[in-house]
Amino acid sequence: MVNFGVVFLIFYLFAFKPLSQLMRDRSRKIEKGVKDAKLNAETLEKTKAKYEEALTQARREAQAIFEAGKKEADSKKTLMFEAAQKEAEKIVESTREKLKEEKEKMVAEARQEIVALTLQTTEKLLNKKPDHSYYDEKTIKELAGI
Question: Which regions form coiled coils (predicted)?
């Protein structure tokens, strides 16, 4: 029995005690690893939530920028259309004025030709040359009333 006690004591001092310490250290490492894993999982979840929030915010901002750009483009399109319309109106008005001036010029030329033809016809019919200054003024005044 003494042998058993000595073997037990040697076994206890050299095998059991170091193995117990080794097992306690191992348990602590495992617990620490589990705690670290939980902490990392929580950190990951928080980071993921922040990422999702940032992504959502970025999408909102992108949509707002897109909408602002669209409004600006619509506004510019309207302004350009209005400017083009005003320019077209100016061109039409300018063309009308030019046509009116040309019409007046043509009418004046036609009146002068009518006077000249009337005088020629009168000369041929009367076989004499009338006083042109008198007839020109009188005829022009009469034809101006036409």
Answer: 34-120
